[in-house]
Design brief:
196 residues; two-stranded antiparallel ribbon; 40% helix; globular; binds adenosine-5'-triphosphate; binds magnesium ion
């Protein structure tokens, strides 16, 4: 049974890699195929975090959500792709944080955007490599040492998804302290309260 689960894990890793490569090819050919619909955003974040609850628990990392009760304006998104973007950054936060640490996912509304931040208490990124972190296939030297598996495609795909929605991505990090990845999404025009 151990051999079987090891084989299964290896197979799933290959499937994940092939899917990442296909997504990169689609992005570069401009046919990633977005399907935009108006969605309440907190539910999308909750479901992305719920799906990773077990991964964080198994590793001894607390995964907490901070979403205000206020009625948030809707966003126009491709629900599946934004789910993928959230999965990429929450998975990174769990993957690059040692047991006993924490990952906090916060959502807030300010002006014409909704912001999401994923903050961890993990290994961080060496200062001299932060500028290359969204590059295709780039992995920082401490990440390669800490966790050998990874392709360096997750953030490249995530950034493309957010920018295709008219949003922006920021990353702040300090080695051995932690990392925060924040992104914005523009809110639905008619919910902006500017009479448009
Ligand atoms: P995969 O393609 O499987 O996601 P990956 O996790 O290495 O592989 P990305 O998600 O693109 O690739 O991340 C690129 C690099 O950015 C990582 O290898 C790591 O060096 C750094 N990184 C990303 N998120 C974090 C984080 N939360 N803490 C520390 N380093 C991070
Ligand atoms: Mg990753």
């Amino acid at each position: 049974q151990h051999i079987l689960s090891t084989g299964l894990k290896a197979t799933l890793r290959v499937i994940g890699l092939v899917n990442d490569l296909l997504n990169v090819a689609r992005i570069e050919e401009g046919r990633f195929g977005f399907r935009f619909t108006a969605q309440p955003f907190p539910a999308i974040v909750r479901s992305a975090a719920d799906a990773l609850k077990k991964l964080s628990e198994d590793k001894g990392i607390s995964l907490d959500l901070v979403i205000p009760d206020e009625n948030m304006p809707a966003v126009i998104v491709d629900q599946e792709k934004i789910g993928m973007a959230l999965d990429n950054i929450i998975t990174n936060a769990i993957k690059y944080t040692p047991p006993g640490g924490s990952v906090t996912v916060s959502v807030w509304h300010e002006g014409t955007s909704i912001y999401t931040a994923v903050k961890d208490t993990g290994i961080g990124i060496p200062a001299h490599q932060i500028s290359r972190i969204f590059d295709k296939f780039f992995r920082a030297e401490n990440a390669v040492r800490f966790q050998t598996s990874g392709t360096g495609l997750g953030l490249y795909v995530m950034k493309n998804i957010v920018e295709s929605h008219g949003g922006r991505v920021w990353l702040e990090s300090e080695e051995n302290k932690g990392t925060t990845v924040t992104f914005s999404l523009p809110i639905k025009e008619k919910d902006r309260g500017d009479g448009q």
